Amino acid sequence: MARPTQDLRITGVRPLIPPAILIEELPIGESASDLVADTRLAIAQVIRGVDPRLVVIVGPCSIHDTVGAREYAEKLKVLADRYRESLVVVLRCYFEKPRTTIGWKGLINDPDLDGSFRVNKGLRIARKLLLDV
């Protein structure tokens, strides 16, 4: 009888929430949609040389503290407004640590920081944070 040779370290499989369901549960509002569209347009115009401003992408290596991320975003918004004539400020919201081979993998993969890997919870937290900021 052949011995098992595949998936020896897999202890369980849980389905991921489909993106359409997540978007339905946490839809983007009009003001957030306008902000994203306007910022993308501004960045494109800077890249084309139409807009003389400088694009700056500012933020942490990865987000794990959503309260701290919201506070950071509020402070960054004040600066973005102050320097809007010369800068297009983009908040870097990175939720994963793809080069990490050991240890915590990021907010989406392990939102409780305890190795429980509740990815669906992490996806919801990440989307909610992005909608908030």
Task: Describe it.
The chain has helices spanning 19-25, 30-48, 66-82, 119-132; strands at 54-58, 87-91. 43% of the residues lie in helices and 8% in strands. The longest helix has 19 residues, at 30-48. It has a two-stranded parallel sheet. The relative contact order is 0.15.
Q: Which residues form runs of ≥5 with pLDDT under 50?
A: none
The rough form would be described as elongated
Q: Separation of termini?
A: 57 Å
With strands numbered from the N-terminus, the spatial order across the biggest sheet is 1-2
Question: Outline of this structure?
Answer:
By secondary structure, this protein is mostly helical. Helices cover 43% and strands 8% of the residues. It contains 4 helices and 2 strands, in the order ααβαβα.
